[in-house]
Amino acid sequence: MNLLQAMVLGIVQGLTEFLPISSTAHIRIVPALFGWHFYGGTTNDPGTQFTAVVQIGTTLAVVLYFWRELLHVTVAWFRGIYDKSVRGTLEYRLGWYLIVATIPVSLFGLVFSDQIETGARNLWLISCALIGFAMLLFAAEKVGRRDRDEEQINAGDAIAVGGAQALALIPGASRSGTTITAGLFRGLDREAAARFSFLLSIPAVVLSGAYEAIHHGKGHSPGAGLTGIAVAFAFVVGLAAIHWLMRWLTSHSTMIFVYYRVALGGLIIVLLSTGVLDATR
User: Fold this and answer.
1) Handedness of CA 177, 178, 183, 186 (dihedral sign)
2) Residue 278: inside a domain, yes or no?
3) Could you tell me which residues come within 8 angstroms of residue 211 by beta carbon, excluding any fewer than 6 positions away?
């Protein structure tokens, strides 16, 4: 990986982490489309370690964007351990909801780590996931009541959205896509579904990034310097992407992302079918 590639992949990560279009899919697709090759020319996939660690940049972005809410949740959760009067607050409940909702993705990530790092990054699977989960988001837009705000998030929402986050381990599914979809199915309005989705991403991505950082030297990696540059670009662009999406969802649906996912998935299928792209390289 060279400097330009690290910068581009950082920008791609920042743009696509919070939009429901799958950052992992784009980190995999963009190098394939440009014909970039890594690790001695053996693959155009920058790898799961790079993907997981560069997500730390977008995690820092969401922490900065929601720092007040995160501070209130953290303080309320610790206070609620010994002060019963705090336990009825939304902030205290959100603390528990974030913990509960992170359990499924943590367990599935450990159990299926080998599959995630190998066959799951196949471009055929990614393209099908882009289209399939687009259809689920479309259905959620059509049947979701969207009559509940953040104040009304409950334990059932945490379980449903947490389970949906585990599906995001499939490249092409999209962490924000699966969790926002689940939130919409649960009747949350778009802004509440997105806010809960973004808050929920923090513990999961921190755990994933820490795990991969510890094992960073054991497999393919582009090097700490270039990865750091990608993380920095992901942070700056990701912060802008969150701001834009939160404003967008106050007055627009997620249908633009449904159309984009279907178009991109269809394009990749065509390129694979005609031999322009190699699904496994």
Assistant:
1) positive
2) no
3) 52, 109
Strands (E), the chain: none
Which residues is 183 bridged to in the sheet? none
**What DSSP assignment string belongs to 28-47?**
HHHHHHHT--BTTTTBS---
Tell me how many degrees the CA angle 149-157-141 measures, rounded to the nearest 5. Answer: 65
Per residue in 134-150, pLDDT (tens digit) is 999 999 999 999 999 99
SS3 assignment, position 148: strand
Count of Cβ atoms closer than 10 Å to residue 43 Cβ: 18
Residue 280 covered by a domain: no
Question: Taking a C-beta distance cutoff of 8 angstroms, is the pair 237, 7 a contact?
Answer: no
Could you tell me if 120 and 108 are in contact, meaning their C-beta atoms sit under 8 angstroms apart?
Answer: no
Token code pair at residue 244: 């834009």
Residue-wise pLDDT for 160-188, tens only, equals: 999 999 998 888 999 999 999 999 999 99
Tokens 């792209």 locate to 277
**pLDDT tens column, 57-74:** 998 999 999 999 999 999
What does pTM read for this prediction?
A: 0.91
Residue 281 maps to a domain: no
- CA 217, CA 224: separation in Å to the nearest integer? 10
Give how many domains the chain has, as a whole number: 1
Distance CA 65, CA 35 (A): 35
The whole domain housing 84 covers 3-37+45-273
Contact by Cβ (8 Å): 61, 238: yes
The whole-angstrom separation of Cα 40 and Cα 17 is 28
279 lies in some domain: no
- In the block, tokens 């607050």 appear at 89
Return the SS3 of 188. Answer: strand
Answer for the pair 51, 142: CB distance below 8 angstroms, yes or no. no
